[in-house]
Design goal:
Number of domains: 1
Number of strands: 9
Structural class: alpha+beta
Strand content: 15-25%
Helix content: 25-40%
Radius of gyration: 19 Å
Bound molecules: inosinic acid
Mean pLDDT: 87
Largest sheet: 9 strands, mixed
Low-confidence stretches: 133-154
Shape: globular
């Protein structure tokens, strides 16, 4: 059984619809969201923490809205911005932009405590392992401690990452389905909040990441 780790019921609805209900357990576990300008390390860190907590194979989903005209903001800060500025506030900011193109990105991070064979999808082996491999002579002391960390199973848990991306445009809020920024994100003339779950999954960042994951997981 696969455990989908999130406090967001909207994400679970989409994952269940894609992977077929009954094939995943939901774990409402609030893992630490580290600060990074990239979704991958945030999801990978969350997956390690969730795996240590659950002891079962876990899938962590980290997503964000990236608006081109404001340098990809809110991106990895999407959750904080939704809680503070709100979805209508983001629309107010975007409304005056000459270019309202944007994208949703999703990174799914899978961890079951085991190694992975090399494939085109990235494998996050923990920053300390990479730091140990690239350290110069001046970093000898750091290198020693980094290698010690790297050989510690708890810090070197490999995590497999699956990424999905969908381009779109920021528009005035429309529709009452979906969740989060769905009402202001239009793809091919329809906002995500105007689509049902199946239709959103067919084109969305999460649907694309789930498709890659499902194909790989079926072979594992
Ligand atoms: P997180 O992945 O839970 O950190 O989500 C980041 C932010 O993006 C939250 O404010 C979510 O509501 C929002 N978000 C994540 N995925 C989607 C989506 O598929 N549609 C709309 N908003 C989303």
């Amino acid at each position: 059984m696969l455990t989908y780790v999130t406090t967001n019921p909207g994400k679970v609805r989409e994952a269940e619809s894609y992977l077929s209900s009954g094939s995943i357990d939901r774990l409402e576990y609030d893992y630490t969201e580290i600060q990074s300008d990239d979704l991958g390390p945030i999801a990978a860190h969350g997956a390690r923490e969730a795996y240590r907590h659950a002891g079962d194979p876990v899938l962590v989903d980290d997503a964000g809205l990236f608006i081109d005209g404001i340098d990809g903001f809110p991106g990895p800060y999407s959750s904080y911005v939704e809680d503070t500025l709100g979805v209508d506030g983001v629309w107010d900011v975007a409304a005056d932009l000459p270019d309202r193109s944007a994208a949703f990105r999703c990174v799914l991070a899978y961890c079951d405590g085991e190694e992975f064979a090399a494939t085109p999808d990235p494998i996050d082996r923990d920053d300390r392992v990479a730091a140990a491999a690239t350290a110069g002579p001046d970093d000898a002391a750091d290198e020693t401690s980094a290698q010690a960390d790297a050989t510690d199973d708890r810090s070197a848990l490999p995590v497999k990452l699956f990424e999905g991306y969908v381009p779109g445009t920021i528009v005035a809020p429309r529709g009452d389905g979906g969740f989060g920024y769905d009402p202001i994100f239009e793809h091919d003339g329809t906002t995500f909040a105007e689509m049902d779950t199946e239709r959103k999954n067919a084109v969305s960042h999460r649907g694309r990441a789930l498709a890659k994951f499902a194909e790989w997981f079926a072979q594992r």
